[in-house]
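dude i think i finally got it to work??
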Amino acid sequence: MCKMWRPSHISDRLHHLAEPVARVVAKTRLTPNAVTIFGFLFNVGIAYILSTGHFLLGGLLILVAGAFDLLDGALARVTGRSTTFGALLDSSIDRYSEAVLLFGLLVYFARRQETTEMILIFATIVGSMLISYVRARAEGLGLDAEVGLMRRTVRICTLALGLIINQVLIILWILAVLTNLTVAQRLIHVWRKTRKGQKGPPPQGES
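look at this
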């Protein structure tokens, strides 16, 4: 029962739920990469809305934008258009989309000179980027690091919830702390694996 509520399980379930919609979209000429780009542009629009302080609308639209994040991968699977570049593009655009949403909030709080919120947004951006980096770097070394609470789907849903219920400061504290805690979780996970004798290739320098 507990497994059903794990972030990884919830994320996988959401991706599977997107496949029926993807089969409908597959009847059009839209490609997975086009859906990815459109989703990013949609997030840019949401960022502007957040920068003007319309948090309820922004939170609701973030949930809508999340559908595009699920749809591009599902469309690639059901149409057999999965490519290495498509996977890289999707992951890269996901990082940009998340950052641009937080940047929209940053602009709003910068205008109001709300220092605490600005610091928390910065900490969240750094934590979010490092969550992805640690996993990618570990996988490049032949290790698995897909652990931790704040996967991207969870982060986006948490942000949307905070905006909808107008508890932005509380949610920013949660995101700032838990994203960086997740980084620590992944580092400790890899450290434990290497302690058990599972070794990857020698380091190739900074990346």
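Residues 2-194 form a domain with the Four Helix Bundle (Hemerythrin (Met), subunit A) fold (CATH 1.20.120.1760).
im so relieved honestly
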